[in-house]
Write a structure and sequence with these properties.
There is one protein chain. By secondary structure, the chain is mainly alpha-helical. It has one domain: Helix hairpin bin (Helix Hairpins, Orthogonal Bundle). Helix 1 packs antiparallel against helix 2.
Length: 66
């Protein structure tokens, strides 16, 4: 498997992870004020997931230009 293919597979997994984090944040928002104390941790997980996904997409773009 090439580096590009490996990175694309990783991006697919990260995309699923980010989507799940987004849904967790959405679900939490609908339940408020229940579990309000977990806002920061759930939001941080969503932030981290999307940041990692964005980094990997940038890596892929760079790799494909090379």
């Amino acid at each position: 498997m090439s580096d590009v293919e490996t990175l694309k597979a990783e991006i697919r997994k990260l995309s699923a992870k980010a989507t799940q984090a987004k849904m967790d944040l959405h679900d939490l928002s609908e339940e408020l004020p229940v579990n309000w104390t977990s806002i920061m941790s759930v939001a941080q997980k969503a932030h981290d997931a999307f940041a990692e996904l964005e980094r990997k997409r940038a890596d892929l773009k760079t790799l494909e230009k090379a």
